[in-house]
Amino acid sequence: MQENRSDNTLNTARVVKFQSSSTQTLKDFVGKGDRNDFHRFKLTGRSSFNLVLKGLQANADVQLGQDRNRNGKLDTQETISRSTRQGTRSERIETTLDRGTYFIRVFPGSRSADTNYTLNLTATQLTPTSNTSQSQVFRDPVDGKQQWKTTVFRWDASQGDQPPNNVFAGNLNNPQAIGQINLGSNVRSDGKNGINFNWGMGAANGDANRLPVDYFAVRATTQVEFDGTSHLFRVNGDDGFQILAKHKGTNEQYFITPEKQWIQAFDAPYEVEYTLPAGQYDLTFNYYEATEAANLDFSWQKSAIQPDPISSSPSPNPTSSNQSSSPFPSPSPAPSDKPSSSQMGSSLWDNPLYYYPLTSKYGQRTYWNGSQWVSGFHRGIDIGTGDETPAVEAARKGTVTEAAIGWNGGYGNLVTIDHGDGLETRYAHLSSIAVKVGDRVDTSTVIGSVGSTGNSTGNHLHFEIRVDGEDKNPEEFISFA
């Protein structure tokens, strides 16, 4: 059998589709010039899984796992099972798997081993247990004035890629309701109003004993006082969310995100400016998770530019839109001596990553997030590098103001550089960072290396330019040809 390198990475893994309990048979080759074969499959329910690797002329091994941190490889802690038997005998993995996306890696047992192989895969969905009866619905204590009172619901993958509109009907009286949990304070650890959680591949609050890890939805509510001025609501999360508010005095409901629509913001945050009449509110976010990672970064604050405050009297039609989904319209600029992008001079700017293609432009886009097609506004540009992780250089002279390792709202490992005059650049999803806060940099300074950290499906640089906090199209400043 000939070498086939098209399936040598997680991002190019061959897709396996199971139908009922039928066995899928795959045949391929691994060896000196073809070091890895990856196969991807998705389970829609808890299943009994069986794998047999056979037909070997030389030693080969097999690994089963999930790319939970989405870094484009199966790390040690992400391995579910791995064959250990040496030689050419058949190797087997038998286990029970929950709903989710999984990867199989077949690789030679030594550097000099060339072998054809046959892979037999079987997944039989287990009979689900009956829904929790209402007598079993639990209610954890919550202070609704300062904490997020949250009801968790099941939903069925057969209903589609997103929960139905009536998923929250009846709250705890809904037969799909599992229980009420406390998601903690409505003031985050960074001092912002909102909530920030990352449950990874696990259940809400890490409570896998009582709650599902996939195909669940939550409705979380807390009490908030709004003063009638405009506020900026900012959300980044996986999979989908909605934001609404109910005036406690009038019971009028306001849809901060479009009514009956799930919003998705895996990469760049979703932002919306909204003005609520002054008063006490039950502020609610609805959130759902299908499979894989579960995370949400939600906050709100007063807008920088304020219209005249509106009174506590609700508008005649509070559900009509006074919103503007990201990016929201900007007011006409006042006269300023600040240079425009065309005046700044190309000699001051440089491409942070030469010789690689622009794979996603600034603006509205539809893209594949690793499991489905989603739409959203892209606040920067992406430069793809395939399997490579080259060095990234600063795009302009400046001072590093952020060099952050971690999730960072989906940006992953992130470097931010202040260039003065309100100019700022951001470099996201880095595999490593080579600078620290306070460092002075220029266009020859390596600030890190391309990677796939944060909310990313493959190696690329996400690059943003901001002027006075507002994102701009980087192609107005730099040529990426």
Write the layout of secondary structure elements.
Blueprint: E1 14-16, E2 23-30, E3 37-43, E4 47-54, E5 60-65, E6 79-82, E7 91-97, E8 100-108, E9 115-125, E10 138-139, E11 147-154, E12 177-185, E13 193-200, E14 216-226, E15 230-247, E16 253-255, E17 263-275, E18 279-289, E19 294-302, E20 324-325, E21 358-360, E22 363-368, E23 373-378, E24 381-384, E25 391-393, E26 398-404, E27 413-420, E28 423-430, E29 432-433, E30 440-441, E31 446-449, E32 460-467, E33 470-472
Parallel strand pairs: 1-3, 10-12
Antiparallel strand pairs: 2-9, 3-8, 4-7, 4-9, 5-6, 5-8, 11-12, 11-14, 13-19, 14-18, 15-16, 15-17, 15-18, 15-19, 17-20, 21-24, 22-23, 24-32, 25-31, 26-27, 26-30, 27-28, 28-32, 29-31, 32-33
In short:
By secondary structure, this protein is mostly beta strands. Helix content is 0%, strand content 46%. It folds into three domains: 5-125, Sandwich (Jelly Rolls); 134-325, Jelly Rolls, CATH 2.60.120; 346-476, Distorted Sandwich (Glucose Permease (Domain IIA)).
